[in-house]
Amino acid sequence: MSNVSVIDAKRGLRPRPAASDANVAARLAALQDKAKGRDAHGILQLALVEEFAGKTAVVSSFGAESAVLLKLVADIDPNTPILFLNTGKLFGETLRYRDRLQDVLGLGDLRSLSPSLDERQKKDPDGTLWSRDTDACCDFRKTIPLSRALEPFQAQVTGRKRFQTRERADMLPVEYFEGRYRFNPLWQWDLHQLEAFMERNNLPRHPLVEDGYPSIGCMPCTRRVAAGEDYRAGRWAGLDKDECGIHSGIDGEGI
Ligand code: SF4
User: Fold this and answer.
1) Torsion over CA of 40, 82, 217 and 163, rounded to 10 degrees?
2) S-S: 115 plus which of 59, 100, 119, 142, CB 3.0-4.6 Å?
3) Is the confidence at residue 139, as pLDDT, over 60?
């Protein structure tokens, strides 16, 4: 059993059947080759239609830029499963924005994921774990529910971009992570392109962007950003943390 499977078993997740490393590496190389020169729509087409039809889920935070990926997905297939982590610590604005985008884009298979009542009582009975151990809080509120929800899928799509963090600077349009292929159609987009796409398609904005939140996560771990600060400076401010764990790892890690 691989290290990932041991960790999954401890978390109560079913170990995934192991694919041969050589097969995975060969398919990843073939997918990366097919993704070459494609724009965001083309990469999504590769995942949702050509290679993993009916076996792909999109992960979305319904944050500041999420409308871009969701619009591109809805244009191909509005019934694509969309996985949304409702951690129990989100801004009310994010929940209302989720509902609005679902209506505007006609998203037909939006799945909200949360830790169970039992897990909340066991791991964070007073709801303040974030103030003592953000990694443990992200693990039970985000990573574990997402791992469970992804079990039936062979591929996932994320809205990650290279410009966002140091770790993401090395990402490729197709990766393999924790037992499935991962597509990043917006990998090369910058803030200007995102803004232009939102404008062109008249997409609704997350209401907190106007209020000084260019990147939006859970309420206790997100603050406003001052003029001149990095656009993700408000996420886990003051901590050496810029990822919640659900998207950690880059190309090929996990093979
Ligand atoms: S972002 Fe903060 S509140 Fe949300 S799950 Fe992670 S530590 Fe908990």
Assistant:
1) -10
2) 119
3) yes
